[in-house]
Amino acid sequence: MTLAPTDMLCFALHSAAHAMHAAYAPLLDPLGLTYPQYLVLSALAAQDGQSVGEIGAQLRLESNTLTPLLKRMESQGWVQRKRAEDDERQVRIRLTDQGRSLAEQAAGVPRAFAERTGLDLPEIVDLRDILVTLRDRLKPARS
Asked: According to CATH, what is the number of the domain 23-137?
């Protein structure tokens, strides 16, 4: 039996991700942020001074994707990239004053997005937890 895409879990997740990105655009565009930049900004606002590797692990982004993104954010004046003093192989990322100000401006984005979903907070938490569980179950085991 062949399933139509509309009956497949993978398509529901794929199309929901596209809808989510589209819903974030009007919230982030006035701030001059892309969705990936918003995620990095949020990660640094929560814990500044992370290494590129730590940010990549948290956001599940490879360094070949993250490094150009961080360079663009640095050119915008939002972050500073600096080699770690104790290990020159690591690059630490810190928010600049302008980046902290932008993070403060973006602090209302999660609430605005939540309102767009039409879900209440317990539903959002439940959905997030289900998706995290699914993601973790699908993640290939490392050998």
From this structure: 1.10.10.10
